[in-house]
Specification:
It contains 15 helices and nine strands. It is an alpha/beta fold and 321 residues long. It has a domain of 195 residues: 3-Layer(aba) Sandwich (Rossmann fold), CATH 3.40.50.
Length: 321
């Protein structure tokens, strides 16, 4: 029987988390032309300021679909904007992108349209409410390995010169996938959303198990969604934490809970985030409290920010070098 470290290495070879090396292809010239065009546009970070800019990255996950993860991502982003943050959402829900629906926005292009020379940075970025920017991964993320034909550094230079953001929220697909694990390794912080039902807690535990096994994060913060009351939320979190503490090498911490508020469902139908459509609702206030905890320096939110150069290195490592 393999020791745990050897087992991890063997499994990681079978299920790689990062991409492969990049090479320029015949479309490199088109990409360079797009970069030069972007440099002539307004917005983003001036070259003199980029080196000192800090960016914080959150990876939002769930054990299964339909638990309200995307709703949480969008409304936390809006709450952060109210707190003075500039937020970019990366929709990483492969083949099931729906951040744009909840935001009431429409994304015609995704990141692979850029890499294939079909769209510029401006065209793949979607304007959301409150000044939020959306970058859709689209179904193209199914072709993650095809990025070995491109260099990510040019993309990052153009992105950072086009849009100004200091927080990136990655709304992952449900469950465990290569892409979800990859994005979580890229982020500073992992946030796991789960409802209180026993089956959902079991699915959430599987995500924690994968994060622990691949040693992606030492801490995961939990949001218990759609609870009837605070007691139900606390009970669900305690059950998940006790199981994780007993069997996993990951610190599970509470981030908050969100009440099962019918205003959330109404907001989805209206395609307007609840923090805008029903800002005084119970759910909106609870989500705002969660956002405040995330940006509170005393809560450790600013202890692991990346400078622009560090952010670029993280991104390049994400897809290869």
């Amino acid at each position: 029987m393999f020791p745990m470290t050897l087992a991890r290495q063997a499994c990681k070879r079978c299920f790689p988390i990062c991409g492969v090396n990049f090479k320029m292809n015949d479309q490199a010239q088109a990409l360079r032309e797009r970069i030069q065009q972007s440099k002539r546009q307004k917005g983003g970070y001036p070259a003199s300021e980029r080196q000192n800019k800090d960016i914080y990255i959150y990876s939002v996950l769930s054990g299964k679909g339909g638990v309200g993860k995307t709703n949480i991502s969008v409304n936390v982003a809006l709450a952060m904007v109210k707190l003075g943050k500039r937020v970019l959402i990366l929709d990483g829900d492969i083949g099931m992108t729906n951040v744009d629906i909840i935001m009431g926005a429409q994304s015609k292009y995704d990141i692979f349209d850029y890499f294939e020379g079909k769209a510029s940075i401006d065209e793949i970025l979607c304007d959301g409410p409150g000044g939020i920017k959306l970058l859709s991964g689209g179904s193209g993320l199914l072709k993650l390995d095809t990025l070995n034909e491109y260099k990510p550094n040019e993309f990052l230079n153009e992105l950072l010169e086009t849009v100004d953001f200091d927080v990136m929220i990655i709304d992952n697909g449900a469950g465990i996938s290569r892409e979800t694990l990859t994005f979580t390794s890229f982020a500073h912080e992992a946030i796991l959303v789960t409802p209180p039902e026993p089956t959902a807690i079991t699915d959430a535990y599987r995500v924690l198990k994968a994060i622990s096994f691949y040693e992606l994060k030492s801490r995961v913060q939990i949001i218990v969604n759609r609870v009837d009351n605070e007691e139900e939320g606390n009970a669900a979190f305690t059950k998940l934490k006790n199981t994780a503490d007993a069997f996993l090498e990951v610190d599970v911490q509470p981030l908050g809970f969100v009440t099962d508020d019918n205003k959330l469902e109404k907001a989805v139908m209206e395609q307007v985030p609840v923090n805008l459509s029903y800002p005084k609702s119970t759910a909106a206030r609870e989500i705002e409290a969660i956002a405040k905890r995330l940006v509170d320096p005393e809560a450790g939110a600013n202890s692991k920010v990346s400078t622009i150069d560090q952010f670029k290195r993280r991104f390049i490592k994400l897809f290869g070098s």
